[in-house]
Automatic annotation (TrEMBL):
<dbReference type="GO" id="GO:0071028">
    <property type="term" value="P:nuclear mRNA surveillance"/>
</dbReference>
<dbReference type="GO" id="GO:0034475">
    <property type="term" value="P:U4 snRNA 3'-end processing"/>
</dbReference>
<keyword id="KW-0007">Acetylation</keyword>
<dbReference type="GO" id="GO:0034473">
    <property type="term" value="P:U1 snRNA 3'-end processing"/>
</dbReference>
<dbReference type="Pfam" id="PF01138">
    <property type="entry name" value="RNase_PH"/>
</dbReference>
<dbReference type="InterPro" id="IPR050590">
    <property type="entry name" value="Exosome_comp_Rrp42_subfam"/>
</dbReference>
<feature type="domain" description="Exoribonuclease phosphorolytic">
    <location>
        <begin position="195"/>
        <end position="258"/>
    </location>
</feature>
<dbReference type="GO" id="GO:0035925">
    <property type="term" value="F:mRNA 3'-UTR AU-rich region binding"/>
</dbReference>
<dbReference type="InterPro" id="IPR033196">
    <property type="entry name" value="Rrp43"/>
</dbReference>
<keyword id="KW-0271">Exosome</keyword>
<dbReference type="GO" id="GO:0071035">
    <property type="term" value="P:nuclear polyadenylation-dependent rRNA catabolic process"/>
</dbReference>
<dbReference type="GO" id="GO:0034476">
    <property type="term" value="P:U5 snRNA 3'-end processing"/>
</dbReference>
<keyword id="KW-0539">Nucleus</keyword>
<keyword id="KW-0694">RNA-binding</keyword>
<dbReference type="InterPro" id="IPR015847">
    <property type="entry name" value="ExoRNase_PH_dom2"/>
</dbReference>
<dbReference type="InterPro" id="IPR036345">
    <property type="entry name" value="ExoRNase_PH_dom2_sf"/>
</dbReference>
<dbReference type="InterPro" id="IPR001247">
    <property type="entry name" value="ExoRNase_PH_dom1"/>
</dbReference>
Length: 278
């Protein structure tokens, strides 16, 4: 009976659970799926930093490639950060091969906004020689398995991958004017803020559930993503249409996001500690 009703009337099926303050997968409304991540430098040998994040069944990998380029004329003391989110057809039936679809483009723009608004990386830190040379960080975020809440997983994977980046020492030879790269002398990337995203699906215009699955996103009347940093500062609120939220509901989301930030930070610190040579 339950399988039939989930297939025929999925929204009614969900409402029966939500009335009891739980979800079909056994989670409470404010509970995240199991979150795991690890640095995957070995699996992407061409990347300067990489990480794989799993949020329930949603799996995202981020690879960061650092290249040298001349700064733009109007930003002589700044480097570049170029994020790109890919949703290949292998990650879910809803996606097709070919040029990036609307959802991938929106996710790429969201990531670019998070980088800018949070100031996680200051572009001036990527400058090597004013007007002459700067780093470009290409951040490719690829979804391997899609089951909702792409944005939280993508921000987490990006942050973890950036924390894994080691940049070689670069100097400019004054006689030749050419850059000289010392691969033996590497330093970690300067990360000034640690943004973490927390997403919610809205059910029936009023009920908020955290970390929605793909099914929950489809059945909901809207979604909202809150991004905070380690100081509890609000970096961005991303609400692509859907049902409006009251000020009180939004404040509830922000409070939950601040708690989530602590959980993610603890997880990152734990993994870094486990791989740091004693």
């Amino acid at each position: 009976l339950s399988i039939c009703s989930r297939t025929v009337e999925p929204l009614e099926y969900y409402r029966r659970f939500l009335k009891e303050n739980c979800r079909p997968d056994g989670r409470e409304l404010g509970e995240f799926r199991t979150t795991t991540y690890f640095f995957s430098s070995g699996s992407i040998t061409t990347a300067d930093g990489s990480a794989l994040v799993k949020l329930g069944n949603t799996t995202v990998i981020c690879g960061v490639k650092a290249e040298l380029a001349a700064p733009a004329a109007d930003s002589a003391n700044k480097g570049y950060i170029v994020p790109n989110v890919e949703l290949p057809s292998l990650c879910a039936e809803r996606f097709r091969s070919g040029p990036p679809g609307e959802e991938a483009q929106a996710a790429s723009q969201f990531i670019a906004d998070v980088i800018e608004n949070s100031q996680m990386i200051v572009k001036e830190d990527l400058c090597i020689a004013n007007g002459k040379l700067a780093w470009v960080l290409y951040c490719d975020i690829i979804c391997l398995d899609y089951d909702g809440n792409l944005l939280d997983a993508s921000v987490f994977a990006l942050l973890a991958a950036l924390k894994n980046v080691q940049l070689p020492s670069v100097t400019i030879n004054e006689e030749t004017g050419l850059s000289e790269v010392n691969l033996k002398q590497k330093t970690p990337l300067i990360i000034r803020k640690h943004p973490v995203a927390t997403s919610f699906a809205v059910f029936d215009d009023t009920l908020l559930i955290v970390d929605p699955t793909a099914e929950e996103e489809d059945l909901g009347t809207g979604t909202v993503t809150i991004v905070t940093d380690e100081e509890g500062r609000l970096c961005s609120v991303h609400k692509p249409g859907g049902s409006p939220l009251t000020g009180a509901k939004l404040q509830d989301c922000i409070t939950r996001a601040i708690t989530r930030h602590k959980e993610v930070k603890k997880l990152i610190d734990k993994v870094i500690k486990s791989i740091t040579p004693k």
